[in-house]
Amino acid sequence: MRAYEGLVGDKMARLKGGKLQLPDVLRYGIELAKVIQELHSMNVLVLNLKPTNFLVNEHDEVFLGDFGIPHLLFGVQPPDSDIILRLGTPNYMAPEQWEPEVRGPITWETDAWGFGCSIIEMLTGVQPWFGKSVQDMYRSVVINQEKPQVPGGLPTSIENVLNGCFEYDLRNRPLMVDILQAFERSLSLSLSLKPHPHP
Fold it and tell me: What is the pLDDT of residues 96-107, one digit of tens each?
């Protein structure tokens, strides 16, 4: 059993304003996208992506922790809508997670929504739909087709891919490979723009 220093959520709680710096968010996003992509290749959906499920080791590398739900195999539909209570955490749930039989199927792109919510929380220090009741979240996401607010001032490719994560029609959402490319591009660009100290 590997030892972990703690959770990304705990790390955020210790920081002023609860938010992480963009380079850290990009780095964590890359590591998470790679793991999610690997799980998807094994026909496993995560469906419960959130900073309190991301473990950090002593090298500040991030890992996917307890999913908190049964691993759902691709194409298997839940038998009834009561299972939705076990299909994720309301603040991070895509429209089809709320109503699998109406808006489904639950698929790879469902994880893109949860990924996007997690990244926004890391950037802002605020949970999506913070302070809303479960019913209000359902109304916002499913009925009103509202999207979590993407903060301004981000690299264009990150802003675009995050907005894409919240497409109401899951067929228009990016796959993990697209998300990974955008994050890797932005991280290498931000590192190359960093001023280097003179010798």
Answer: 999 888 887 888
